[in-house]
Amino acid sequence: SAGIFAFQTCSIIAKTSSAYDANKVLMGVSDLTNAHGEKNPDNYAYVIQCNFAASTQCTSSNKVIGLSSVTNAHAEITSGNDYTTNVCYGDLSCISSTDECGTATAVNYPLGILSLSADTNAHIGTFTDYSTKICCASPTSRFAFWSKDGQTSISVTDVVPGTTEVKMFIRNSVPSNA
Protein backbone atom coordinates (compact mmCIF):
# COMPACT_ATOMS: atom_id res chain seq x y z
CA SER A 1 0.00 0.00 0.00
CA ALA A 2 1.28 3.46 -0.85
CA GLY A 3 1.67 6.33 1.58
CA ILE A 4 2.96 6.47 5.10
CA PHE A 5 2.18 4.19 7.97
CA ALA A 6 3.21 4.64 11.54
CA PHE A 7 4.08 1.83 13.89
CA GLN A 8 2.57 3.96 16.64
CA THR A 9 -1.11 4.90 16.51
CA CYS A 10 -3.69 6.78 18.57
CA SER A 11 -7.47 6.74 18.28
CA ILE A 12 -10.69 7.52 20.13
CA ILE A 13 -12.13 4.50 21.92
CA ALA A 14 -14.79 3.84 24.54
CA LYS A 15 -13.53 3.24 28.06
CA THR A 16 -15.74 0.14 28.08
CA SER A 17 -13.78 -1.34 25.14
CA SER A 18 -11.74 -4.46 25.82
CA ALA A 19 -8.79 -2.56 24.24
CA TYR A 20 -8.94 0.17 26.91
CA ASP A 21 -5.65 0.57 28.80
CA ALA A 22 -5.43 3.42 31.30
CA ASN A 23 -1.62 3.45 30.91
CA LYS A 24 -1.95 4.48 27.24
CA VAL A 25 -4.53 7.27 27.55
CA LEU A 26 -3.67 10.72 26.20
CA MET A 27 -6.90 12.46 27.31
CA GLY A 28 -10.64 12.10 27.75
CA VAL A 29 -13.24 13.16 25.16
CA SER A 30 -17.00 13.49 25.46
CA ASP A 31 -17.83 11.60 22.25
CA LEU A 32 -16.36 10.15 19.04
CA THR A 33 -16.79 13.47 17.21
CA ASN A 34 -17.91 17.04 17.90
CA ALA A 35 -16.46 16.42 21.35
CA HIS A 36 -15.26 18.43 24.28
CA GLY A 37 -12.02 17.34 25.92
CA GLU A 38 -10.63 16.84 29.39
CA LYS A 39 -7.05 16.56 30.56
CA ASN A 40 -7.70 13.61 32.87
CA PRO A 41 -10.04 10.88 31.59
CA ASP A 42 -12.39 10.96 34.56
CA ASN A 43 -15.77 12.28 33.40
CA TYR A 44 -16.24 11.04 29.84
CA ALA A 45 -17.01 7.64 28.33
CA TYR A 46 -14.36 8.03 25.59
CA VAL A 47 -10.62 8.54 25.55
CA ILE A 48 -7.88 9.14 23.04
CA GLN A 49 -5.67 6.13 23.54
CA CYS A 50 -2.36 5.32 21.87
CA ASN A 51 -0.92 1.87 21.29
CA PHE A 52 2.14 2.86 23.32
CA ALA A 53 2.40 3.95 26.95
CA ALA A 54 3.88 7.35 27.78
CA SER A 55 3.77 10.02 30.45
CA THR A 56 1.18 12.80 30.23
CA GLN A 57 3.56 15.09 32.11
CA CYS A 58 4.26 18.26 30.10
CA THR A 59 7.78 19.28 29.12
CA SER A 60 8.80 22.22 26.96
CA SER A 61 8.23 20.32 23.72
CA ASN A 62 5.57 17.58 24.03
CA LYS A 63 2.31 19.55 23.81
CA VAL A 64 -0.33 17.85 21.67
CA ILE A 65 -3.18 20.39 22.06
CA GLY A 66 -4.34 23.10 24.44
CA LEU A 67 -7.66 22.99 26.31
CA SER A 68 -9.79 25.88 27.59
CA SER A 69 -10.13 24.15 31.00
CA VAL A 70 -9.39 20.79 32.63
CA THR A 71 -12.80 19.34 31.63
CA ASN A 72 -15.74 20.20 29.35
CA ALA A 73 -13.19 22.10 27.27
CA HIS A 74 -12.79 23.40 23.77
CA ALA A 75 -9.39 22.81 22.15
CA GLU A 76 -6.74 24.69 20.21
CA ILE A 77 -3.88 23.67 17.93
CA THR A 78 -0.46 22.73 19.28
CA SER A 79 1.11 26.13 18.58
CA GLY A 80 -1.80 28.04 20.15
CA ASN A 81 -1.31 29.91 23.41
CA ASP A 82 -4.84 31.13 24.21
CA TYR A 83 -5.54 28.19 26.55
CA THR A 84 -3.47 27.29 29.61
CA THR A 85 -4.38 23.61 30.03
CA ASN A 86 -1.92 21.68 27.90
CA VAL A 87 -2.40 18.05 26.91
CA CYS A 88 1.01 16.38 26.52
CA TYR A 89 2.24 12.89 25.78
CA GLY A 90 5.62 11.21 26.10
CA ASP A 91 8.28 12.59 23.77
CA LEU A 92 5.87 13.57 21.00
CA SER A 93 6.57 16.63 18.91
CA CYS A 94 3.34 17.84 17.26
CA ILE A 95 2.10 20.32 14.67
CA SER A 96 -1.24 21.21 13.17
CA SER A 97 -1.75 20.70 9.46
CA THR A 98 -4.46 20.71 6.85
CA ASP A 99 -2.48 18.03 5.01
CA GLU A 100 -2.60 14.37 5.90
CA CYS A 101 0.02 13.44 8.47
CA GLY A 102 3.19 12.24 6.81
CA THR A 103 2.58 14.18 3.60
CA ALA A 104 3.30 17.67 2.27
CA THR A 105 3.80 20.12 5.18
CA ALA A 106 3.48 17.32 7.74
CA VAL A 107 5.92 14.89 6.06
CA ASN A 108 8.04 14.50 9.20
CA TYR A 109 4.98 14.03 11.44
CA PRO A 110 3.44 10.66 10.51
CA LEU A 111 1.37 10.02 13.63
CA GLY A 112 -2.19 11.35 13.28
CA ILE A 113 -3.67 11.91 16.74
CA LEU A 114 -6.99 13.75 16.26
CA SER A 115 -8.65 16.53 14.30
CA LEU A 116 -10.09 19.88 15.36
CA SER A 117 -13.05 21.84 13.98
CA ALA A 118 -10.95 25.05 13.97
CA ASP A 119 -7.56 26.34 15.12
CA THR A 120 -9.02 27.52 18.44
CA ASN A 121 -12.33 27.29 20.33
CA ALA A 122 -12.63 23.94 18.56
CA HIS A 123 -14.41 20.65 19.02
CA ILE A 124 -12.38 17.43 18.89
CA GLY A 125 -12.96 14.54 16.53
CA THR A 126 -11.42 11.43 15.11
CA PHE A 127 -8.57 12.03 12.72
CA THR A 128 -10.86 12.06 9.68
CA ASP A 129 -13.63 14.30 11.04
CA TYR A 130 -12.17 17.77 10.54
CA SER A 131 -9.63 19.44 8.24
CA THR A 132 -7.31 20.65 11.00
CA LYS A 133 -5.16 17.61 11.84
CA ILE A 134 -2.84 17.17 14.81
CA CYS A 135 0.20 15.32 13.50
CA CYS A 136 3.04 14.13 15.71
CA ALA A 137 6.41 12.42 15.65
CA SER A 138 8.61 10.86 18.27
CA PRO A 139 12.38 10.40 18.52
CA THR A 140 11.65 6.84 19.62
CA SER A 141 9.23 6.03 16.81
CA ARG A 142 9.93 4.52 13.44
CA PHE A 143 7.90 5.08 10.35
CA ALA A 144 8.09 4.00 6.78
CA PHE A 145 6.94 5.65 3.60
CA TRP A 146 6.99 5.16 -0.16
CA SER A 147 8.91 7.83 -2.09
CA LYS A 148 10.71 8.55 -5.35
CA ASP A 149 13.34 10.78 -3.72
CA GLY A 150 13.47 9.77 -0.04
CA GLN A 151 12.06 13.12 1.12
CA THR A 152 8.51 13.36 -0.17
CA SER A 153 6.02 10.57 0.32
CA ILE A 154 3.80 9.57 -2.55
CA SER A 155 0.22 8.42 -2.59
CA VAL A 156 -1.33 5.67 -4.65
CA THR A 157 -2.65 8.30 -7.09
CA ASP A 158 0.96 9.28 -7.91
CA VAL A 159 1.83 5.77 -9.06
CA VAL A 160 1.43 4.54 -12.64
CA PRO A 161 1.53 0.73 -12.46
CA GLY A 162 4.46 -0.71 -14.37
CA THR A 163 6.16 2.67 -14.93
CA THR A 164 6.62 4.45 -11.60
CA GLU A 165 9.69 3.41 -9.62
CA VAL A 166 9.36 3.93 -5.87
CA LYS A 167 11.32 2.86 -2.82
CA MET A 168 10.37 2.36 0.80
CA PHE A 169 12.22 4.57 3.27
CA ILE A 170 12.35 4.13 7.04
CA ARG A 171 12.95 6.98 9.46
CA ASN A 172 13.88 6.37 13.06
CA SER A 173 13.49 9.82 14.59
CA VAL A 174 12.15 13.33 14.38
CA PRO A 175 14.22 15.57 12.10
CA SER A 176 16.45 18.13 13.80
CA ASN A 177 14.21 21.04 12.72
CA ALA A 178 11.18 19.59 14.52
Determine the number of helices (DSSP H or I, runs of at least 4 residues): 0
Q: How is the main sheet built?
A: 4 strands, antiparallel
Alpha-beta classification: mainly beta
Summarize the helix and strand pattern as letters: EEEEEEEEEEEEEE
Q: Sum up the overall morphology in one term.
A: globular
- Cα(first) to Cα(last) distance is 27 Å
Average pLDDT, rounded to a whole number, is 85
Spatial order of the strands forming the largest sheet: 2-5-3-4
Beta content comes to 25-35%
Helix content: under 10%
Low-confidence segments, given as residue ranges, are 1-6, 173-178
Total number of strands = 14
Q: Gyration radius, to the nearest Å?
A: 16 Å
Q: In words, what does this structure look like?
A:
It is a single chain. The protein is mainly β and 178 residues long. It has no helices and 14 strands. It has strands spanning 4-6, 10-14, 25-29, 37-38, 46-50, 63-67, 75-76, 85-88, 93-97, 111-116, 124-125, 132-137, 143-147, 167-171. The strands form four sheets. A four-stranded antiparallel sheet has the order 2-5-3-4, with no helix packed on it. It has a four-stranded antiparallel sheet with strand order 9-12-10-11, with no helix packed on it. A hairpin with a 7-residue loop joins strand 10 and strand 11. It is globular and about 55 Å long. The model is unreliable at 1-6 and 173-178 (pLDDT under 50).
